[in-house]
Amino acid sequence: MLVVDLDGTLLRSDMLYETFWSAFGGDWRTPFLAVASLFGGRAALKRRLADTAQIDAATLPYDPDVIAYIKTWREAGGQTALVTASDQAIADSVAEQLGIFDEAHGSDGNTNLKGSRKATFLDQRFGINGFSYMGDCSADLPVWSRAGKAITVNASAALRRQAEHVCAVVEHLSTAAPSLHTYAQALRPHQWLKNVLVFLPMLAAHQFDAATFLVLFLAFTSFSLVASSVYVLNDLLDLSADRAHPRKKNRPFAAGRIPIAHGIWLIVLLFGLGALAAAVIGWEFLMVMTGYFVLTTAYSLYLKRRIVIDICVLAGLYTIRIVAGGVAMETTLSVWLLAFSIFFFLSLAAVKRQAELVDSAKHGNLTTVGRGYHVDDLPIMPMIAIGAGYVAVLVMALYTNSPAVADLYPRPEALWGVAAVLIYWITRTVMVAHRGHMHDDPVIYAAKDRISQLCLLVIIVCVLTGMIP
Question: Which of 204, 221, 355, 412 could lock 405 by a disulfide, CB 3.0 to 4.6 Å apart?
């Protein structure tokens, strides 16, 4: 009999964390309810989370090498059993999904089937040395001590030695290990491009001195760290939704390439470093960063599922970056700049949702997973994108004729070229999204798209021309 553990062995994840984050994503009260459940023991906690979470066993990150090992065992005539400390409901759904186990056993709400309890259970069911056991952590040592064969999966060198000490026959499997590159991917450094917006107040005010640049660079660093902490949080909350997405399923946490437990520490570390950098700038900037974190957390937990509100919040999160830049350099932001930013980024947020709906329609899905939109809403999104985008261009045109421009630009008429380019770019971007060629994030798309790069170059030329005496 081959007995296989679930968490960290058959599965490149841990179902306690999986169920917690799934339940938390659906109900913000989950942490408090989980603490209350702990008074009944870990088995009671697992039962409550299993009942509350929505887990799709078909999309979980299974280890293909472990599955291949189990299939080979069965082909040789052996029997297999899934025995896990996860709740019985989880064990049953996984066993049913894979169809490679003769039986499945898990915690029952009262007894946490782990460590010595699991060893005693297997002794009673199969007898001492009557089974081979496949596991991955130190909690499996009592089980290996009573097994006829110990099989470790991605165990550390120390744990391998311990397994060899308690069991006469040992086999080691190495299937995967997270790398620094994988952790870097989880931070989404390509998204830091958005944080360049903190420099916009400096450009708009023509305040090009070293002190201003340095303080804004520190603000950029703070924003990048805090934003990455939010990206990690969002990935943990969106595990099921990401696994159902054709591209997002390859994200490190969704694919099981980084332990979910490490994500919690990453959130704390990144936010702590970002808050420290913000505090160096000043308490007002720290308050802005705290507000940004709270708003993005609220977006991840609830607001992203509320239609229209979600794109308004996204537009606000972009604009907060500009506000933060103004606070960092202690300058009053122009109403023109704020109005333009709100409408322009509302347009981009609508394009983002449009692209998701187009992708859903292409794959035959009626709704976007984890969002409040239906495919039938698709005709409305480009209307919002174009309408908001054109209003942003109108604000730009009115600003060009305002008295404030004459103080900054000797040739303000050159700025009309900026408005013309923006009309073209916004219209083309909506068309690209309509044809299903848009990236998940319009900002990342713009950074990689050659025509968008050319448009940016023309805008820079127009602005520099306006500055020539």
Answer: 412
CATH topology of domain 2-173: Rossmann fold (3.40.50)
How far is residue 90's CA from residue 56's CA, in Å, rounded to a whole number?
10
Q: Domain segments of the chain: what residues?
A: 2-173, 179-325, 334-469
Strand order of the sheet with strand 170-173?
103-107, 80-87, 2-4, 132-135, 149-153, 170-173
> pTM of the full predicted structure?
0.82
What is the pLDDT at residue 363?
67
Per the structure block, which two tokens stand in for 424?
A: 């073209």
Angle, alpha carbons 123-125-127 (nearest 5°) = 45
The residues, any chain, with a CB within 8 Å of residue 346's CB and separated by 6 or more, are 311, 312, 314, 315, 384, 388
The whole-angstrom separation of Cα 236 and Cα 20 is 10
Other C-beta atoms lying within 10 Å of the C-beta of residue 3: 27
Handedness of CA 252, 258, 259, 260 (dihedral sign): negative
Walk along the chain (469 residues) in steps of 10 and give the mean pLDDT of each run: 94 93 87 89 92 90 94 93 95 94 93 93 90 93 93 92 92 83 88 90 86 93 94 90 80 89 92 94 93 90 86 92 92 88 94 86 65 81 94 91 80 88 94 84 84 93 85
Nearest to 291 by CA among 322, 314, 324, 328: 324
